[in-house]
Structure formats: C-alpha cells, structure tokens
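Recall the central idea of this unit: under ordinary conditions, the amino acid sequence of a chain determines the structure it adopts. In this exercise we apply that idea directly, starting from the sequence alone.
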Amino acid sequence: MSAAVLGNDTPWSEVHTLLIPAYLETLTMVGVVMVLVVLIGGASGVLLFNTSEFGLFPHRRLNRALGWTANMGRSLPFLVLMAAIIPFTKYITGTTIGIKAAIVPMVIAGTPFFARLVENALRDLPREVNSVGLVSCGSPWQIIIHAQLSEALPGIVAGITLNTISMIEYSAIAGTIGAGGIGYLAVLYGYQRFDHNIMISTIVVLIATIQLIQFIGDRVTRRLIK
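Accordingly, the structure predicted from this sequence is:
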C-alpha cells in the first residue's frame, strides 16, 4: 500500500505547474475580498463608532442595530456560514462553486470582523481628537477623514493585516466547495489523492505567505506610529 501511495506523488519538477496557478487564484480571491471588506467594513466601523456615545452623532438604536448585525456575522464558523447562505450565493453569482461563489461568504464573514477592528481602533483614540475637530469648525466628514481615520491609521493597518490572514485561511476552507486556489489543490491532490508533495508544498507556501503579510503589516504599522 505504501508503494501505491508513493506512486501518487506529483514529481517535484512538476509541482510548480499546479501550485503557481492555484496560488494566483488564491491571491485573486483574497484581493477582491479584501477590497470589498475594507470598503464595506471600514464604513461600517466608522458608523459603529460615531453612532456610539463617543462619536460625532450618537444614536443608541442605530448603534445597537449595527452592533447586533456585526455580532451576528461573527457568530457562525466560516464553514457553517458558507453552507447556510448557499441559496443567497447562488442568487448573487449564479453558481455555488468556484471563486465567485467563495467571494460572497468570505465578504460576509470578513466585513463584520473588520468593522469591529476599525471601531476599536477609533475608540482607542484620545477623546480630544473629536473635540479639536469640532473646535476647528470641521464638518463631520472632515473630522472623520482628517482626524479620526488619520490618527487611527496604525490600528486600521494592523486590522487589515489580521483580516487578510483570516481571508487566506477562509480561502483554504472554501476549497472544499471547489473554489479553486491553494485550498482546493490541497483537498483534491493532497487529501483525496494522498499526494504528499503537493500537500507539503501547499503548507510551505501558506506559511510563507502569512509570515510575509504579517511582516509587512507590522513594518507599516510601526512606521505609521512613528
């Protein structure tokens, strides 16, 4: 049996022909998701903070509704969420497999998480940030852009780093529905076909990618703090 298993291994000289296209699919998937997550989640986080008692336009009911929505989006494990919204995913994309089908649940999972990260980054700011903007007769939009987000940028970049790593992990899980990418390659070849070379390669690539993203994120965050 061990000989048969070893016979299934892709030769090392051919691993890159499978790994590179899968890696590019993962980068495409995560890139599209993160653009949407930062835009939607960032706006939601700003709204969450500014409708709270610490914000520019406190509104208890709206804040509670937004908070409840964000908490609900973070409550379900990604695999459960992915399965639960299959009808919605099919309605939006017309399919339940492939990259397009994976993007929908990944955005839904990532947006509330990033919204909370942005809210926390804004909440950590000194209370004087809003006061200075108001005394300077700045509009709410000007205060949000030039005072709140500008001062909270290091925390927001750290949140983007953390969220990107989570989305890479989610993209691997999405491989179970044929979403493509590194996750699908690991499931199809590494698990179902017992291809050790592919499995080892995908693990190494994922670890290296996450380490690189964390390193870049930490460097950028430190520079912004200085």
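DSSP finds eleven helices and no strands in the chain.
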